[in-house]
Specification:
- The protein is an alpha+beta fold and 441 residues long.
- The protein folds into 2 domains: 24-233, Cytochrome Bc1 Complex, Chain A, domain 1; 254-436, Metalloenzyme, LuxS/M16 peptidase-like (Cytochrome Bc1 Complex, Chain A, domain 1).
- The chain has 16 helices and 11 strands.
- A 6-stranded mixed beta sheet has the order 1-2-6-3-5-4, sandwiched between helices.
- Helix 2 (69-76) packs across helix 8 (194-204).
- It is globular.
Length: 441
């Protein structure tokens, strides 16, 4: 997707006297009497509609000893209601030509389906039903716990880079719940009970702790009437507890080493940074593009193609989080190279970007990439829905229209100041994966 975006950026540059504009979606917002927010965006390019239910609950809302509850509950939400048999939800959507899925993150849990405009009412009825009537039957609990445990084993414990990300994240945050993995710690998963899930469901699954996003080919009055007839009948629940934990500023570099069966060393750096509510976030986003987006980016040029120290390198930042987050830089070493060598090379690149302003050509190229990527992500109705939801769940939908405008205004001086402020070794955590021989099973 990034390479397609780069191609689009180049095309944008060839249009004389024109700057690419990401059209601001005309989103209609309605709040039902029970507190459920509804966001409607018409898009008549194709006869399809995406329907998404976003809950204000993720791993950020969990307590120590009960990590993984949000993700586990997402699994159990497919185990039926009084009206719908276990796994029937999925079969109904598929039988009617729709696509569905769900995901859990640190900040949210989301359920979504994309169907034809004639059939989208089916998804609306199913989601309203399980918002309040999920069965949580005991006979499926142990079976689904085994599924979640195996998922954790495959995705984290048997995946060296993900295992390193997990332990590095746990050291990056000392008190904030972002330190816990979304899927949960293995010991916590084993100790979770059906009663834990039922209590969590009653606490967080209510219309006043959720919102609905609908994008596509629909008549607003008709689809709103359908939502009111289904979700509008659900009573408002008690307001869930707020997360009030604040991470104190880091005052010194932290390091963590993981020895694990792996082919090659791996390096991960986390720098504490603000989210999109802070004006510096736009420069942070642009910095990651300059550092590691595409073959001509600085880290690729230097440590992948120049010195041939790393097989791959990436820089990642998303300001769409409820609380302050991290800017991450990661790299996998080449055979025969150590993580320490890769780290020294990365540090040299970072020192350069902290000491010299980026050139105007490099700056404009990065802006074009960001702009093209933003436009490309709005090409589908699903992407438009996700964008509305991610802003609303984290920093507020009102910031959507400001993003490209703020990126366009950035100067080389802005990037230099932000790099010096946040790419500070005293506010980073470094994780190193050291390969070992095959582990005993």
């Amino acid at each position: 997707m990034r390479w397609v975006a780069i191609a689009l950026a180049l095309a944008i540059q060839l249009i004389p006297g024109r700057t690419a504009q990401a059209q601001s979606p005309q989103v209609e917002e309605i709040t039902l009497e029970n507190g459920l927010k509804v966001f409607l965006l018409e898009n008549h390019k194709s006869p399809a509609v995406t329907f998404q239910v976003w809950y204000h609950v993720g791993s950020r809302n969990e307590l120590d000893g009960k990590s993984g509850l949000s993700h586990f509950l997402e699994h159990m939400m497919f185990k039926g209601t009084a009206k719908i048999a276990p796994e029937e939800h999925s079969r109904i959507i598929a039988k009617n030509g729709g696509r569905y899925n769900a995901f859990t993150s640190q900040d949210t849990t989301v359920y979504f389906a994309t169907m034809s405009r004639e059939k989208i009412g089916i998804a609306i009825e199913l989601e309203a039903d399980r918002m309040v009537n999920a069965r949580m039957a005991g006979e499926y609990f142990a079976r689904e716990k085994a599924v979640v445990i195996e998922e954790r084993r495959l995705r984290t414990e048997d995946n060296p880079s993900q295992a390193l990300a997990e332990v590095t994240g746990a050291v990056t945050y000392m008190v904030h719940p972002y330190r816990r993995p979304v899927i949960g710690w293995m010991q916590d998963l084993r100790n979770l009970t059906l009663q834990h899930l039922k209590s969590y469901y009653r606490t967080y699954y209510s219309p006043n702790n959720a919102f609905v996003v609908v994008v596509g080919d629909f008549v607003p009055t008709e689809i709103l009437a359908k939502i009111k007839a289904t979700f509008g009948q659900i009573p408002r629940g008690p307001d869930p507890p707020k997360v009030k934990i604040t991470e104190k500023p880091q005052r010194g570099e932290r390091r963590v080493t993981l020895k694990k069966e792996a082919e090659l060393p791996y390096l991960l750096m986390h720098y504490h940074v603000p989210n999109l509510k802070d004006p510096d976030s736009y420069a942070l986003d642009l910095l990651t593009v300059i550092l590691a987006s595409g073959r001509s980016s600085r880290l690729f040029r230097d440590i992948v193609y120049g010195q041939r120290l790393a097989r791959s390198v990436s820089a990642d930042y998303s300001g769409l989080s409820i609380d302050p987050t991290v800017l991450s830089i990661s790299a996998q070493a080449m055979p025969g190279k150590s993580a320490a060598e890769v780290e020294r090379a990365i540090d040299q690149v970072l020192e350069q970007i902290k000491s010299e302003p980026v050139g105007e050509r490099e700056l404009q190229k990065a802006k074009n990439q960001v702009e093209a990527d933003t436009i490309f992500r709005q090409d589908s109705i699903f992407g438009q829905g996700m964008r509305i939801g991610r802003y609303e769940i984290s920093v507020g939908r009102h910031l959507m229209d400001r993003y490209l405008e703020e990126v366009r205004k950035l100067t080389a001086a802005d990037l230099l100041r932000v790099a010096r402020t946040y790419l500070d070794q005293d506010r980073r955590t470094v994780g190193t994966l050291i390969p070992t021989e095959e582990e005993a099973r």
